[in-house]
Amino acid sequence: MDVLSVTTKWYECIANNTKVWEGRLNKGKYTFTIGSKIVIKCSEEPSRVIIKTVVDIKKYPTFKTGLIDLGWSRILPHVETLMEAEAIYENFYPVDEQNKYGIIFFRLF
Questions:
Q1: Is 46 helix (H, G, I), strand (E, B) or coil?
Q2: Which pLDDT tens digits describe the chain residue by residue (109 residues)?
Q3: What 3-state DSSP class applies to 70?
Q4: Domain ranges of the chain
Q5: Of 53, 100, 65, 101, nearest in space to 75 by CA
Q6: Could you tell me the fold of the domain covering 2-108?
Q7: Which spans in the chain are helix H?
Q8: What gap in Å lies between CA 84 and CA 101, rounded to an integer?
Q9: I need a surface site. Which of 32, 57, 71, 96 has the fewest CB within 10 A?
Q10: pTM for the whole structure
């Protein structure tokens, strides 16, 4: 099973099903398929883990297009604006990498 490490804030949102979509660059180990099982690990408390299943996959050229289409509140709960949501992802993935690889969003259940 693949492992995704997320901060406590996002771990809690995934665990209580308020964060139903997770997004990554569409490269390497993040090219999941529907039905894939993923271990979600809390980066600050590694003993906290949950297992989720990928139930849907959407691909986009940038995070912004995915955030708009899927609704950023389903991807980043508690984030109030599109600009704020976009900035969170750009801290991890610069726009040039987004343009090079594209983005994959996968719905977790």
A1: coil
A2: 889 999 999 999 999 999 999 999 998 877 788 999 999 999 999 999 999 999 999 999 999 999 999 999 999 999 999 999 999 999 999 999 999 999 999 999 9
A3: helix
A4: 2-108
A5: 65
A6: 2.30.130
A7: 8-15, 63-70, 72-75, 82-92, 95-101
A8: 22
A9: 96
A10: 0.88
